């Protein structure tokens, strides 16, 4: 399907930004342009520092169509390396994560250090006068991190990461408080894929509207008090456009700052955890801090284009093709926190998240149906205008609206249109 | 190991899998010992499942909630399950020095979903405790061979 024959990329987002054409999800040429104009051109999340906590630790990740290795060297410096041998292009690492002193290409045995330096070339004689090893390290990308979140980019001219995150930084600062007084640490991840476009997932993280409807079977499994917490659509929450495509959706305002209101009564569902922590000898203040952090933050922070700090976990998306997306739900806890705290967080994560959780399979089916349904009709609109008449400006000058508005989707599509437009101009 | 025990375990596993394919979950729940654990792990390198993230780590409460969800009619992904057929084979049974019987078999499960036939393949490891002519399940661990890959979602009990 050649989109240019029907409609220019610049017209896929309506001028008001309140609707997008469904060719956004289905046109392979749009997808190819997104990989160039967005994923090769901006900061993309590749991991959390706790995933590679020790010397020699590594993980693999995706930046658009590229596979990369995120590696920690002997000096504890972090490198983001393109996962292809400089000789004939084979991947040099096929594992999700591990620990290695070096990366060796299986094809001809070229060996690279943890920093990507080409160290060894078997039977090097015939290369004399042909190549110099120092000129052929693994391709190393620009990387920066904020509060342990590692981002990398193919674009050496892009602004510093902290400028790109901008208004999202204060929400990251709040999000990491769910370590319960301990540094944030990843605790494993669910991986799943769905047959649909990556932007359907991007939208979902800032979509409160769907929650009580498609996740009814999850809410039915909760105790009454907890189910009430999730009844937030008509509450005081909000969605705010944070700029650069980022947005925050505050669902439970009283759980925005997990270090406040520590004197609140302990919820029934955490009474057993509190009793266990108390029995282990932890102070009342510490117990309250851990219990308040146990279920995570009361908001989803959506960072364009591929990661969300989503209540109690990191949600990472990787576009595979126009109609295939891979997703990770990374569980988090406290590094050095009591085992009972991290265990409770793991069990909560399993309850909703992942391919066998009580929530994810229903999300996945809805997204699959969006992909299928949006192939019907020609030049039909996807609406992202909910709450539009309620949009106001806050003291920062940011648009915000009710919690179940679609302001966050509009924010993402505004950035999408800006980046895709810039790409066209540079063609 | 006596042939009788092999036959009894084989019949029990057939019965359990028939209940699951028939979605007779209310009859599946009483097969469990109250402190039994149903696990679908991600990391199968050792058996410290309780400390790690799994696809499912269900105690009695979670099993009851999982069954309630499957029977509720409230979940679109459950309702789209057009049925499963599971086959087990390659059963091996080990009696231990305690009264726990360990059994291991292969599982091939097929699901019809939205017009697509989906498959999963796993090793199942059981810990069974004799209960008259039958058994209670003390532990069932379903080790998908692609547990570390990106899975399609699963709205049934493996």
What's this model, at a glance?
Chain A is of the alpha+beta class and 427 residues long.
How far apart, in Å, are the first and last alpha carbons of chain A? 20 Å
Number of strand segments of chain A: 21
The helix/strand order of chain B is: HHEEHHEEEE
CATH topology of the largest domain in chain A: Naphthalene 1,2-dioxygenase Alpha Subunit, Chain A, domain 1
> How helical, in percent, are the residues of chain A?
25-40%
- Biggest interface: A-B, 36 and 33 residues
Q: What is the alpha-carbon Rg of chain A in Å?
A: 23 Å
Helix content of chain B: 25-40%
CATH class of chain B: Alpha Beta
Mean pLDDT of chain B: 96
Sheet having the most strands of chain B: 6 strands, mixed
Structural class of chain A: alpha+beta
Summary keywords:
heterodimer, A: 427 residues, alpha+beta, Rieske Iron-sulfur Protein, Naphthalene 1,2-dioxygenase Alpha Subunit, Chain A, domain 1, nine-stranded antiparallel beta sheet, seven-stranded antiparallel beta sheet, 27% helix, B: 158 residues, Nuclear Transport Factor 2, Chain: A, six-stranded mixed beta sheet, 4 helices
């Amino acid at each position: 399907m050649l989109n240019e024959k029907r409609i220019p990329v610049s017209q896929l987002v309506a001028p008001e930004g309140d609707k997008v054409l469904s060719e956004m999800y289905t046109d392979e040429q749009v997808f190819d342009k997104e990989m160039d104009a967005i994923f090769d051109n901006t900061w993309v999340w590749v991991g959390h520092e706790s995933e590679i906590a020790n010397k020699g630790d590594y993980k693999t990740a995706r930046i658009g169509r590229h596979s990369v290795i995120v590696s920690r060297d002997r000096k504890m410096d972090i490198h983001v390396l393109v996962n292809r041998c400089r000789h004939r292009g084979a991947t040099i690492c096929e594992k999700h994560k591990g620990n290695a002193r070096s990366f060796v290409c299986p094809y001809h045995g070229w060996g690279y250090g943890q920093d990507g330096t080409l160290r060894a070339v078997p039977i090097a004689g015939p290369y004399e006068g042909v190549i110099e090893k120092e000129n052929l390290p693994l391709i190393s990308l620009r990387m920066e991190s904020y509060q342990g979140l590692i981002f990398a980019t193919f674009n050496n001219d892009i602004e510093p990461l902290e400028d790109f995150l901008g208004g999202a930084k204060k929400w990251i600062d709040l999000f990491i408080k769910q370590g319960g007084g301990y540094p944030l640490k990843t605790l494993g991840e669910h991986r799943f894929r769905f047959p649909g476009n990556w932007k359907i997932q991007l939208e979902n993280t800032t979509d409160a509207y769907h929650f009580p409807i498609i996740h009814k079977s999850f809410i039915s499994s909760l105790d009454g008090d907890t189910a009430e917490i999730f009844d937030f659509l008509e509450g005081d929450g909000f969605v705010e456009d944070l700029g650069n495509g980022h947005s925050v959706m505050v669902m439970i305002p009283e759980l925005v700052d997990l270090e406040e209101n520590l004197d609140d009564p302990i919820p029934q569902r955490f009474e057993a955890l509190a009793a266990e922590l108390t029995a282990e000898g932890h102070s009342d203040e510490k117990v309250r801090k851990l219990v308040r952090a146990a279920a995570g933050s009361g908001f989803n922070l959506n960072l364009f284009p591929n990661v969300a700090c989503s209540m109690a976990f990191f949600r990472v998306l990787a576009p595979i093709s126009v109609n295939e997306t891979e997703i990770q739900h990374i569980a988090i806890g406290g590094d050095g926190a009591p085992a009972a705290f991290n265990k409770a967080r793991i069990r909560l994560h399993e309850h909703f998240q992942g391919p066998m959780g009580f929530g994810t399979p229903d999300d996945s089916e809805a997204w699959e149906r969006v992909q299928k349904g949006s192939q019907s009709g020609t030049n039909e609109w996807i609406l992202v205008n909910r709450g539009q008449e309620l949009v106001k400006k806050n003291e920062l000058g940011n648009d915000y609206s009710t919690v179940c508005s679609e302001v966050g989707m509009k924010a993402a599509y505004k950035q999408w249109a800006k980046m895709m437009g810039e790409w066209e101009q540079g063609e | 190991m006596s042939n009788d025990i092999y036959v009894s375990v084989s019949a029990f596993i057939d019965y359990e899998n028939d209940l699951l394919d028939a979605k007779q979950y209310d009859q599946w729940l009483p097969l469990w010992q109250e402190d039994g654990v149903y696990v679908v792990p991600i990391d199968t390198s050792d058996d410290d499942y309780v400390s790690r993230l799994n696809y499912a780590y269900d105690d009695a409460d979670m099993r009851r909630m999982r069954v309630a969800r499957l029977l509720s009619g409230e979940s679109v992904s459950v309702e789209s399950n057009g049925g499963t057929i599971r086959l087990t084979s390659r059963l091996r049974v080990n009696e231990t020095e305690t009264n726990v019987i360990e059994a291991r078999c292969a599982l091939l499960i097929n699901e019809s979903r939205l017009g697509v036939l989906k498959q999963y393949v796993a090793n199942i490891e059981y810990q069974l405790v004799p209960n008259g002519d039958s058994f209670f399940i003390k532990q069932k661990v379903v080790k998908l061979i692609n547990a570390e890959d990106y899975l399609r979602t699963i709205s049934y009990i493996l």
